[in-house]
Amino acid sequence: MGTGGKRLADAFEVVSSLPALAEARRRALEACAAESASIGEIAEIVESDAALAIGILRAANNGGGPAGRAGGVTDAIEALEPAGVGATVSTLSSYDLLEHPSSRSQRHERFRRHAVAVRHAADRVAELARLPYRDEVAVAALLHDVGQLVLAELYGEQPTGDAGEVAPDERARRERRDLGIDHAIVGAVLVRRWGLPASIATAIERHHAADADGAAAAVRLADLLVHHCEGDHVPAESLRSTASRIGIDADQLRTLIFEFPYFTHVRRRPSEPCPLSTREVDALRGLAEGKVYKQIAHELSLSVSTVRTHLHNVYRKIGAVDRAQAVLLARDRGWI
Prior knowledge:
Structural class: mainly alpha
Order of helices and strands: HEHHHHEHHHHHHHHHHHHH
Mean pLDDT: 88
CATH superfamily of the largest domain: Hypothetical protein af1432
């Protein structure tokens, strides 16, 4: 291996041992030891820190759990079980900004804050776009900038100009110009080395591509929204074109821009398999949005009687007596 290859391998190793925020690590260990903690509660804590998510996903995908590829944090926790999650978390190092402040811990904390913000935005984007595999979208959002940590290990912090003037895509372009590679490609390579699903690596690799679609477009839009909230220059056309590629219209985009940075909704995790068909979920989601049968039928290109049948099936399957209870039960179980 040449000198360049050795330096890259060393940088990968450093980032692969990314420390977790001390408070996040403590809460994760506490939740895993509690008899009453649910998978969803543990998942929310793990997804509050990219280092925790990396450790759990690597353990689940590389021999720490049953055979099979865990694409989301919830899948990884179910594979490892709380005891296995606790054992994995206990091996991770941590940083505490109050006890041991340093330039490295500040870098880790900037990465964690931005990663979690983009994950929350990606949850909402994926919900509006009705994308499948939303747990994988969440992981891609958490890890979308992990390549920046690798580049920082290799080259130090790179000046990118005034954050209020430089758009995210322009920063990636400058990396390619100055370093010959950008953080999205580096991050995708590292994620593949960790054994995570190819779909996550692809979403990370393409999150700065103007023609990104699917999960990559969801992460891209979420990243743009968060950069906008952080005061960075984000071209309106980048927002519009990215949103349109996943079926989010201008009114929905305006809602997203309004919601962030004030959005505080915590996504409910499915606590049990959903017994509803796709059309039944679509109809129930319409009810949850306050729409009447006629509106739901128009949007789904169905007859009103078919929508009514779908919803009656929903009530029967989940044991609800009316629309309000059906919506409440479905939201509580993470189905809508």
